[in-house]
# Entry
Amino acid sequence: MFSRSAFPPIASLRAFEAVGRLGGIRKASKEINTDHGAVSRHIRSLESWLGAKLLVRDGQGYQLTETGAAYHQEIAKAIHLIGSATSGIMQPQERLSLSIWCIPGFGSLWLSDRLGDFIASNPDVDLDFRPADQSPDFRSVLVDGDIRYLRYWEEADVPKHVRVLEFARPEVFPVASPEYAANMKPIEDAREFLDHTLLHEDTDAEWRHWLLPQGVEADGALPGPRLWHAHLTINAARQSRGIALANIDLLSNDLETGRLVRIHPVGAPFQTVAFGGYCLLGRSDRWNSPALARFRKWIREKAAA
# Structure
């Protein structure tokens, strides 16, 4: 059991959680509906009570100190639990809301065909689904979850206040239309891809990371257009515009129907490459909320199936 002296005033904790998440005194005061001066006093009082610096001001707002970040993570969980328990008593029949963002390519090529199943099996959840190029700032945008293709060289960029569930890590391989493939010379060495039009998303990083395990380190920019989205590169490949990198989750039935074919070498097979995973990212303080917990379970099962 903790001593009562180990519990600071709840108003100070609430103010600290909001400022730490939103990064600003005025943003926090607006959210918790109190004067910004009162929020500042709550923060100073809490820091004095703890004997530790929790926040530092920078050019754009407030940042958590190392001590503050560790404390904020636990306080955010506690405040969410209090809110969930309270709302469960006050409004046991209340409808749930769920806001999910998603990369457009995965949203249109995989998720959209399956999302109706989640809606049908969760009639008490009001879903707000939005395809989005960029991941949201969970501290300032009221989004529960975000689906991204997280490449291994991007994993370190995930903020500490964000939780991650990887639900699929598919192999990546080159594909082209049957017409394009028929006009190609047989590929004997992966370096020969550099003689073709390579279809890229926003950069040539994916092709570079696929070529490296094949023993090819390219100099200079790789040839081919930047199309920014996976579904656009795949559609360009269908139209015989070049060769795209894809995975089975994005191709739907393209391989079965013959709209696209996988490019194989003449000799030994290419090295298997899976440089990223499809991940559900979410706010730490919302990670175990009923609606997001249901969605996590659902998407994990759908991906496994």
